[in-house]
């Protein structure tokens, strides 16, 4: 007689996980639907309040960020408009966004917006990290159950390498599929220095709008990547995306 316990355990674990996620997602969706309705009614202040609350909690979508940028631009809050567009660019690298940020910041040339094909693929993986981890966890569970069943039914040594491979993939997904930390220069002027000190050599003096990759933190300084080289900027001059 076929043992149905493994199938039941797998289905039950997936059902519990999906139900727990659906309750959270439904609450977030209801709020954003209300905000979108307010936006369509041109109640921008009320919509922005809901958007900002969700944004502060790490809940946002490309469409929401564009609406936030639109509202901020309409109130002459160009700094935040550029910030939301910069975050949008993190999720969806679109050259047209760079043009808009240039217009907002009155900068003819902006650094830090170049995205390679490899970076785009990595971005796709990071955006789907939860789904990837869920699939790998399910496959690992199935693999372990099969190992257990084969061990009980067969005298042959079970095959462990698929489970080991999935464990390695899960480790990599959990520890390395994280979006790079980027920041937007938001103060005028901002000094980019060679060392985390006011006595450091001046590399460049820039205006707001440039995007930098944040590599680390030292006291009041961010270590950043600037034109493929290491540099330092005061934290007060950078808003993290």
From TrEMBL:
Give TM regions: 131-152, 159-177
Annotated signal sequence is 1-27
Record carries keyword Acyltransferase: no
Q: Which UniProt keywords apply?
A: Membrane, Signal, Transmembrane, Transmembrane helix
Q: Which residues form a coiled coil?
A: none
Q: InterPro entries under this entry?
A: TPR-like_helical_dom_sf
Q: What is this protein called?
A: SH3 domain-containing protein
């Amino acid at each position: 007689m076929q043992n149905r316990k493994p199938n039941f355990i797998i289905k039950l674990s997936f059902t519990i996980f999906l139900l727990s996620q659906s309750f959270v997602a439904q609450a977030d969706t209801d709020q954003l639907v209300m905000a979108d309705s307010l936006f369509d009614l041109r109640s921008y202040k009320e919509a922005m309040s809901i958007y900002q609350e969700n944004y502060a909690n790490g809940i946002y979508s490309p469409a929401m960020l564009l609406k936030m940028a639109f509202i901020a631009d309409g109130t002459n809050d160009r700094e935040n408009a550029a910030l939301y567009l910069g975050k949008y660019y993190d999720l969806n690298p679109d050259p047209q966004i760079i043009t808009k940020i240039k217009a907002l910041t009155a900068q003819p040339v902006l650094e830090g917006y170049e995205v390679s094909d490899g970076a785009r693929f990595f971005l796709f993986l990071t955006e789907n990290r939860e789904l990837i981890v869920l699939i790998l966890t399910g496959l690992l569970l199935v693999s372990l159950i099969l190992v257990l069943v084969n061990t009980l039914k067969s005298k042959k040594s079970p095959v462990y390498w698929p489970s080991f491979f999935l464990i390695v993939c899960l480790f990599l997904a959990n520890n390395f599929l994280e979006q790079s930390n980027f920041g937007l220069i938001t103060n005028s002027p901002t000094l980019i220095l060679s060392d985390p000190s006011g006595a450091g050599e001046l590399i460049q003096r820039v205006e707001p709008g440039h995007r930098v990759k944040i590599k680390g933190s030292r006291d009041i300084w961010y270590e950043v990547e600037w034109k493929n080289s290491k540099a330092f900027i005061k934290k007060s001059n950078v808003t993290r995306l």
